[in-house]
């Protein structure tokens, strides 16, 4: 572990550490200084915001050490499905919110345990924010696809990270990709420093940025140093179950790290236990039920059926899933079975009085957290 004596720069936003920090089992702190000597330390103290001290201790991070929460531990937050996908903050609108904060950089599609680790490290330096860029598919001509986390459910997930982040839930801000796609790496960092006024950034070791992804983590470190911001580069959180079945040999960036692509592949296989390990929580699928005629019941069971067009995020593969949990607003989770076919998703509950549906509403959002896929044996 290497460290150099720190210096600080007052930006009118609190005292910011103008430094570079490599975090994980070993980490490097580098800050502008006239001295070139390094010394070994067991922890590093950084002055931030009125000289409050934050200390970093090296540690290994793996999915086995990050426990998932059950459906009953995380509240269900109602969604507003009328929100438009392009209703994201512009740089000028983000300024007052992220100024002086520590911003984690990434795409944050799955909000998996690797993303959570970025937020954890950001929270150790200052107020944690996630800053991502949306609308990439439309600009780059990619085929549209369901998000892993429903847009209206992202706030709930971030709230569940608060215990890991000093009891502070990270805030997320999304900027349209089209507004930044032509920025060079230097222009991108200049925007962070001068337009958004952030105090520092946290990124993974494989992070790329700038036009045509020209900048890498080392370039980010150099440019942040130039603009007086802290740059905190963390090691990838690795999939502890990585093997040849999970590796994507067509993706040269896949070194066995936890990724949104890996989550998508696990969902496509119906491996919900593995999905939960990657996410650090059960996968929650949201449906917007608009037709009450889809609700049917018998004397012993109650069934809900809805077309796949009602899905607000990515479902697992078609099949039959046992020991699932149905969530409706603030009500207690209800155990159910879920069957997914080519066109519809079906839920079945044993108790007809267990399902709380508000018939006064024209539509209602239901949440499903999945148990394991039942494999039919011949």
From TrEMBL:
**Pfam family name, one:** FAD_syn
Entry coiled-coil feature ranges: none
Q: Give the Gene Ontology MF terms in alphabetical order.
A: ATP binding; FMN adenylyltransferase activity
Q: Tell me which InterPro entries the record gives.
A: FAD_synthase, Rossmann-like_a/b/a_fold
Q: Which residues form the FAD synthetase domain?
A: 179-241
EC number per UniProt: 2.7.7.2
Picking any one GO biological process from the record gives: riboflavin biosynthetic process
UniProt KW keywords:
ATP-binding, FAD, Flavoprotein, FMN, Nucleotide-binding, Nucleotidyltransferase, Transferase
**Pathway noted in the entry:** Cofactor biosynthesis; FAD biosynthesis; FAD from FMN: step 1/1
Top enzyme class, one word, equals transferase
What Gene3D superfamilies does the entry give?
HUPs (3.40.50.620)
Name of this chain's protein:
FAD synthase
Q: Where does this protein come from, organism-wise?
A: Hibiscus syriacus (Rose of Sharon)
């Amino acid at each position: 572990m290497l460290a150099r004596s720190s210096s600080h720069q007052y930006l009118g936003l609190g005292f910011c550490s103008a430094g570079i920090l490599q975090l994980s089992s070993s980490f490097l702190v580098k800050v502008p200084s006239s001295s070139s000597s390094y010394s070994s330390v067991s922890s590093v103290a950084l002055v931030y915001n009125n000289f409050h001290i934050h200390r970093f201790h090296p540690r290994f991070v793996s999915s086995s050490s990050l426990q998932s929460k059950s459906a009953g531990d995380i509240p269900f937050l109602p969604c507003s499905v009328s929100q438009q996908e392009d209703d994201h903050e512009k740089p000028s609108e983000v300024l007052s919110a992220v100024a002086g904060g520590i911003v984690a950089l990434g795409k944050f599609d799955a909000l998996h345990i690797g993303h959570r680790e970025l937020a954890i490290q950001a929270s150790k330096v200052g107020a944690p924010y996630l800053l991502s860029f949306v609308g990439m598919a439309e600009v780059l001509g990619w085929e549209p696809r369901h998000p892993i986390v429903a847009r209206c459910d992202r706030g709930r997930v971030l709230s569940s990270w608060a215990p890991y982040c000093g009891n502070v839930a990270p805030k997320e801000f999304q900027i349209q990709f089209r507004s930044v796609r032509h920025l060079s790496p230097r222009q991108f960092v200049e925007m962070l420093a001068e337009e958004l006024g952030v105090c520092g950034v946290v990124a993974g070791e494989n992070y790329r940025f700038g036009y045509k992804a020209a900048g890498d983590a080392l370039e980010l470190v150099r440019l942040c140093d130039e603009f007086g911001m802290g740059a905190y580069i963390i090691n990838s959180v690795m999939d502890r179950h990585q093997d040849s079945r999970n590796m994507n040999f067509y993706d040269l960036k896949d070194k066995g790290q936890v990724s949104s692509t890996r989550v998508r592949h696990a969902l496509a296989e119906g491996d919900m236990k593995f999905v939960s390990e990657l996410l650090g929580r059960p996968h929650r699928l949201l449906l917007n039920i608009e037709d009450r005629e889809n609700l049917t019941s018998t004397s012993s069971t109650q069934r809900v059926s809805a077309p796949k067009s009602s899905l607000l995020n990515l479902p697992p593969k078609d099949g039959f899933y046992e020991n699932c949990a149905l969530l409706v607003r603030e009500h207690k989770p209800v155990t159910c079975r879920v069957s997914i076919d080519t066109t519809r998703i079906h839920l079945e509950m044993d108790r007809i009085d267990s399902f709380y549906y508000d018939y006064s509403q024209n539509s209602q959002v239901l949440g499903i957290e999945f148990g394991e896929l039942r494999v039919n044996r011949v």
